[in-house]
Amino acid sequence: MINAYTPFAASLSRIFQMDVKNIDSNEVLQKSFDELLSLPWSLFQTNTSFSFIKENNEFKPVRQNTNSETCAKCKIDDSGHCLCKTAFSLKEITFCNNERQHFQIGKVNLKESGHYCVPLIWQDEMYGIFILNANQDLVQNDFEIEFFKAATNAIANIVGNKRFEEELQIKAQKQNVLNQKLFAQSLEIDQKNLEIEEYNKKLLALNEELSEKKIIIEKAHKNILSSIEYAKTIQDALLTSKELINSWISEYFIFFKPKEKVSGDFYYINKLDDNLIFAVGDCTGHGVPGSFLTVLGITYLQDIVKRRETYNPGEMLNMLRQRIKEIFKSFGSNNRNGLDIALCSINTKTNVLQYAGANNPLYIIRNNELIEYKATRSPIGFYPVERTFENNVINLENDDLIYIFSDGFQDQFSGNNNAKFTPKRFRKMLLDIHKMPLPKQEEIITDTLQQWQNDIAQLDDITIMALKWEM
Question: What is the pTM assigned to this prediction?
């Protein structure tokens, strides 16, 4: 009896001593199964046996040494369950007869034919199964059954450990790949951080440079604003004061609305002897450039008036043009800088008004009628075809309303339809309000401009002078 069991003990020893270092779990299972099948079993037909192993929740054949009819008696379905379900549920060796009846070992009718289902279980999980056909005229052999149980348990542990080792290796490989990716990302992040640090240094240097330039610009801006404010002070000083105007004229208004801080428009009023001289000028440009020209215009006009050489506005404009041309020519310039102007002179004794205009007309409203005195179509300054400024002589009547102005109001665009106000609308507005007191007229003109502009910015300087003549 001892000699009969020796091959079994030797086989189990070889299974335990198997070198599994360089083979995978499937090969371990196959070699172990082959080792068992090499033994002289009385219970099994080793030539008609096969085994399955579980991979990705499916049982796949590892070794098959049987025909299709045997496989059909105990196959693996799509859900991964053996049709010999008793072996799965009990996790023990079971016997399945050819009528698909299942029995635990020890409850087998030895006269029946069938096959054994031997589960491979490791850590309470079944991951493989052996299928072995029973010998005909089956004889119960307790030693073989117990040995097979012990052998399959040993194989289950060896294969289970191998599979666990393989899983660890796979995880280690994945972790290694992940570590390499993380290392590469870390290097990339370090590079980006260096780039960001360098960029931040450049930004800091740029911010410092911008801060310095901002201080310079703010200082320059402050100086410019101070200069403009001072220029406004000079311009205001050159414009005739309200105190003087009130001493010469009883009822009047001057609507003076520069586009910017300083204006390219100006008004002028003076009285010498019995002559009241007044004008509205519109210099080339607006803002600071225009304001420089207003200084020249007011200064030269004042000098011409004070000389008392003439009170004829046409002659005075010819003289003013010559002075403007000389100042620009003396600096080597033959440009188009100059001004448009409406200039009037009233003899307060005779009530005779003389008017001459450089592009800017004169309006007089008398007896509900607006009378327009057209200007000479030539500016004060250089012009391709210069014309002598025509002097108009007008006998004033009591309550005549006299209007002179720049073109800023008429040329203002509307925020509603993007159209200009136009001279026609301007004349109609004056006619509509002429019966009202002059201060009230100025209020209406202010409101009309605001409504017309809406959200459109003012485009030019605007000046309107109006006075009522009383005899």
Answer: 0.59
